[in-house]
Amino acid sequence: MMRTPLLLLMALFFFASCTKKETITDINHINQIIDENIAPPYDGVTSVEVDNYVNKVYIDLYGREPLDSELEFSTAMLKDGGLTPEVRELFLDDIQSSAEYFTRFWEIYNQAYLQNVTEDYINFQIILYTQAYNDELQNGNTAFAQRIMQEIIRFEKLRDAPADYENGLIDIKEFFRRIADNGVYDEINMGSENFVISCFEHFFKRFPTEAELPAAVTMVDGFAAQILLEDGNNKADFLDIILSNGEFYQGLVFDIYQQLLSRIPDSAEMGESTLELTEFGSYQSIQRKLMISEDYAGF
Description:
Number of helices: 16
């Protein structure tokens, strides 16, 4: 709906009478009809609001506030680009391309799933298991030595998971498999039942049903069973089934919304984001979509 010319002149007079200050706290907006649904320019967004947006992005994706130089550069980049969704996406893509982003990504899930296990601890376990492996080989216990080697491989994969994910060598599904398929996760969630419950809670954000729990435990213990309409007979099969199910991707969408917007997604948001994750597996793309939005940016 168009305002009257008189109201427009009053608004123009108000802006002309403003002194030159960095922050404008009283802003009169004029409603306009925009052809082809093109958003109006962000002339009404203050420098403080842009600074707050940059700060928020750094805290959410790096776990820290930006340095003065980073804040100045990022704010200038966004303002020079008119704060359009396209320039916001370029800004976010640059943030997500850094090693610091992937370090923070690992820290979030390491804390939530593995109680902040350190690389030194993982390497120490590899040394211990390697010594045991060599001892068993010397004693002629080849079969047991091979079982120990599997533990070494699991620890090595866990240790390499952050770097491999950053470098695109593994996808999001394999990243979380490594988080759950190792001696640290086993020790935290000791026993087959606790392991199953933890996987359902971490990946599906729910408790297993009365039918799912005994079937999953049977499978993890090495016997044939069926869960989520899929057959398996060992822990690897169980993780394959869990991490290939749509509820796993729904759980990731839930994580992203909780981390960035402190709320759960509605049904439409959940459906769209889950479909995108299922088809393309891009956790970072879902993050960018949320952080570009006015819901996150606040302008």
